[in-house]
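note to self — DONT lose this again. spent like an hour looking for the file last time. sequence + predicted structure for the chain T wanted, 425 res
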Amino acid sequence: MISAYMMVLAFTVLLVLGTPIAFAMSLAAVFAITLFDPAPLVLLPQLFFTSTNNFSLLAIPLFIFAGALMAKGGITDLLVNFSRAVLGHFKGGLAQANILSNTCMAAVSGSATADVAAVGSIMIPAMTRSGYPPTFAVSVTSCAAMLATIIPPSVVAIIYATITGVSVGQLFLAGAVPGLLSAAGMMLLTRMYAVRFNMPSDEKANWTERLRLFILAVPALMMPVIIVGGILGGIFTATEAGAVACAYALVYTIYKGKARPRALYETVLEAAVITGAALIVVGGCALFSWELVRSGATEAVTDAIMTFSDNPHVVAALIIGFLLLLGTVMEPVPALILSGPLIVTAVSTFGLDPLSFGVACLMALILGAVTPPVGILAMVACRIARIPYSSTFRPIMPFVLLWLGLIVLILYVPIISNFLPSFIK
C-alpha cells in the first residue's frame, strides 16, 4: 500500500506544478514502481502500448473525423436554423432551440467541448441579441452540451466501455434514451423559467419554411439514425459504425462542395491531435491504475466500502458521489480512467448493472464540466459571451439539480438505459 500512497502524493505534486495529467500519471507510476514496489520496467512500455492497442478505441478518431467533416459542411448552421424554426416562436423558444441543436450536434460529434463551441458561437450571440441574459444563455448552452457524453457516438462512452469491458454498441444504445430524456427535462425547465421571467420569442415560421429547413437538416439528422439503427439491427459494431459515419460525412462534404484538400487535411489533423491526446491519457492512466491494483489499493477501497455497507444501492450512491467530486477537479476522460479500477471492482463485486450504472457514471463525471473549479464547458461558453465565469454559478444551479435528479432516476430505474440494449442481447 505504501507505493499507492506515494504514487498519489507524487501525482498530486506534479499536478500542482502544472504537469499535464497524462505525464503526471505516468511519472508518478514509474516513481512508485521503481522505488517502492519494484517490477521489471520493461513491462511499463508494453502495458502502455497494450492499453491503447484496442479495436474499440479505433472508434474515437473515426467519430471525431466524421463530426469534424460534418461541421466543415456547415451542419451546425442548418441544425440551429431548423431548431429555431420549430421552437423559436414559443416563449423562451430560442433557449429550447439551443437545447435541441445541442442534442442533434451530440449525435454527430460525440464531444461536449466541440458542441459547446460550435452551437455556442451561434446561439449565445443570438440569444443575447434577442434579450436573454448572457448568464442564462451560457447556462443553457453549457448544460445542453453535457448531452454529448451520453448520446451516441460519445467519445467518453467509448473509453468507459474499453475500461470496463462493456460492449461499446450496447453502451451507445443505453445512453440514447437517457440522453433524450435529459434533453426533454432541460427543455421543460427552460420553458418554466421562460414563463416565469417573461423571456422573448421569435416570429413564428410558416410550415413551408419549416419543411425547407428540415430537408436541409436531414443529412445531419440521418447520421444518428444510421449509427443507432445499424447497431440495433446488428448490421455493424460501434467501431464499424464509426467507419460508416466517416464515409457518410465525406460524401456529404463532397456534395456540399466543401471537400477541398486543405479542409480535409485540417480535419484529419484535428482528429489526429484529439485522438493522440486522448490515447496518451489512456496509456498514462493504465500505468497508474495497474499500480493501484497491484499494490492492493483497490481491494482496500472495496473492503472499506463493504465495512460501511454491502447494499448495492448504497455502494452505487457512494461511487457516484465520489465521481461527482472527482469530476469537479478533473476532466471526464482522465477522471474516468483513474476511477476505472474502482468501477470495475464495484460492478463485479456488488452486482451493479453495468449499463445503467455506466450511464450514471458518465453523467456524474461530466457534471463537473459546468461547475467550479474546472467547469470547462461553462468557461468556453463564457469566453464566447465575454462574461466572467463566476457570474454563471447561480443561473446554472437549476440545471445542475435537474441533472442530479436524472442521475438518481437512471441509476435506480435501470429499464430506462436497458430498454434499447435488450433488443440486441
